[in-house]
């Protein structure tokens, strides 16, 4: 009994087999593709488990978006079982097994248990290649946080817990497996994951896990910009985007990732604009509606673009070329840290280019603007600016009304903009010229 108590205090790792139904995890909650992968691999004589975030989220009563599988089968053996599977990755090879749901392809990601090894690292300690395989205990030790080292066996309906992850979920804690400083050096992106998971799931980062982060934050500068963009997307589309950014700033992680954040938060109007944009995104995610990465990045970077644009126009540059130059300069600056894919960057720029066109409400310009493919996104962006006092509310109200009225009313609205003084005057009553009969009667 004393040994058991000491073990509990020291939190020594060891296999715990837990009844899954007791924690609200049932086979019917698992994606049919993940179940099929586990069942077929087990039928072929391999171990196979649903692992990581899916198990964690199910215990927390959430609906996982991704269901990953871990197995002792090598990538080649997995591909032998699933002929349509694809082996990808260099740093650590994984297998994508495709399934079709409602006419769309869905991917189940399958990884082979990682083993304990002396993987090659760079000068900062970051692991460069990691294709050494091992058993499930070694794989659990290689995972980042205790709450992610959970394995669900759908055939036995059991949860295997090697590092007290279920206890940490119950206690609402986020703890690193192993020495946090060493683990962050192996992969600095783990610091971003700590921030995202704590904000998204409402978990408190333990003191030992939190302590090295400010000192090691500069290591993120060694991470490829494309990978940082992927992590930024996860933060912004976590459903708790504002909380994620604030936690990011609290730990000093925004400086190597998104240094413009301090500038955005320094003024009440720009802070309100950013908070409103992120809140709208969170709401759409909660309602399972589509979200636009281009719109969100347009909101994140607009104030830097606008400030530079105003500076250029004040120096007598033509407005449209000045805006284009400002957009390109800001994009080049951001590209050094975040490699925004072209499809998002194009949407972002189109939204920006529409903003000055909303000021042009004369002639055929309003009609041509409404024909633009990005009109709705640009209009929503204008509304957001108006709500935060960054543009006249009257302009947003005009465009809202313009979309609702008929053709004659639209022409009248344009006429009032073109001649505001004339439209404000009350029509003068014209004196009727007396007819000849009236004049004759007066003469009598």
Which features would summarize this protein structure in a list?
10 strands, disordered C terminus, Beta Polymerase, domain 2, 24 helices, 444 residues, alpha+beta, disordered N terminus
Structure description:
- With 444 residues, the protein is of the alpha+beta class.
- It has a domain at 9-171: Beta Polymerase, domain 2, CATH 3.30.460.
- The chain is 53% helix and 10% strand.
- It is built from 24 helices and 10 strands.
- The protein has helices spanning 2-10, 32-43, 53-59, 75-81, 136-142, 165-170, 180-186, 189-201, 207-210, 213-216, 225-236, 241-250, 254-257, 261-265, 268-286, 293-314, 319-335, 342-354, 365-370, 375-387, 393-404, 407-418, 420-424, 436-443, and strands spanning 16-19, 48-51, 68-71, 86-88, 94-101, 104-112, 150-153, 158-161, 173-174, 204-205.
- Strands 1-8-7-2-3-6-5-4 form an 8-stranded mixed β-sheet. A two-stranded parallel ribbon has the order 9-10.
- Strand 4 and strand 5 (94-101) form a beta hairpin.
- Helix 8 packs across helix 12 (241-250) and helix 16 crosses helix 17 (319-335).
- The longest helix has 22 residues, at 293-314.
- It is elongated.
- It starts with a helix and ends with a helix.
């Amino acid at each position: 009994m004393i040994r058991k108590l000491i073990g509990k205090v020291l939190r020594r790792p060891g296999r715990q087999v837990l009844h899954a139904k007791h924690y609200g995890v049932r086979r019917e909650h698992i994606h049919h593709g993940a179940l099929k992968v586990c069942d077929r691999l087990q039928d072929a004589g391999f171990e196979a488990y649903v692992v990581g975030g899916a198990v964690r989220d199910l215990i927390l009563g959430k609906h996982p978006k991704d269901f990953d599988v871990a197995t002792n089968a090598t990538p080649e053996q997995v591909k032998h079982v699933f002929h349509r599977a694809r082996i990808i990755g260099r740093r650590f090879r994984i297998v994508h097994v495709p399934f079709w749901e409602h006419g769309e392809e869905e991917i189940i990601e399958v990884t082979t248990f990682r083993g304990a090894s002396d993987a090659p690292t760079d000068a900062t300690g970051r692991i460069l290649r990691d294709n050494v395989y091992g058993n499930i205990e070694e794989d659990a030790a290689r995972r980042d946080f205790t709450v992610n080292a959970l394995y669900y066996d759908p055939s036995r309906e059991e949860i295997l817990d090697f590092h007290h992850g279920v206890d940490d979920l119950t206690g609402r804690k986020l703890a690193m497996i192993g020495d946090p400083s060493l683990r962050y050096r192996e992969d600095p992106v783990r610091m971003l994951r700590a921030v995202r998971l704590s904000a998204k799931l409402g978990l408190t980062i333990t003191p030992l896990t939190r302590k090295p982060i400010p000192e090691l934050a500069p290591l993120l500068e060694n991470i490829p910009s494309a990978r940082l963009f992927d992590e930024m997307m996860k933060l912004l589309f976590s459903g708790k985007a504002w909380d994620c950014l604030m936690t990011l700033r609290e730990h000093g992680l925004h400086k190597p990732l998104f240094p413009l954040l301090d500038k955005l938060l320094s003024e009440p109007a720009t802070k309100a604009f950013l908070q409103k944009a992120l809140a709208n995104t969170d709401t759409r995610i909660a309602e399972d509606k589509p979200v636009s990465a281009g719109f969100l990045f347009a909101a994140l970077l607009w104030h830097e673009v606008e400030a530079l644009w105003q500076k250029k126009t004040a120096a007598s540059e033509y407005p449209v070329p000045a805006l284009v130059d400002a957009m390109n300069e800001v994009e080049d600056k951001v590209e050094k840290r975040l490699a925004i894919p072209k499809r998002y960057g194009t949407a972002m720029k189109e939204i920006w280019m529409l903003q000055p066109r909303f000021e042009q409400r004369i002639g055929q310009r309003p009609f041509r603007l409404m024909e633009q493919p990005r009109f709705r996104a640009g209009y929503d962006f204008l509304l957001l600016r108006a709500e935060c006092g960054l543009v006249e509310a009257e302009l947003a109200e005009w465009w809202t009304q313009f979309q609702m009225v008929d053709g004659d009313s639209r022409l009248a609205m344009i006429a009032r903009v073109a001649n505001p003084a004339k439209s404000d005057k009350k029509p003068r009553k014209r004196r009727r010229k007396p007819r000849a009969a009236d004049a004759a009667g007066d003469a009598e």
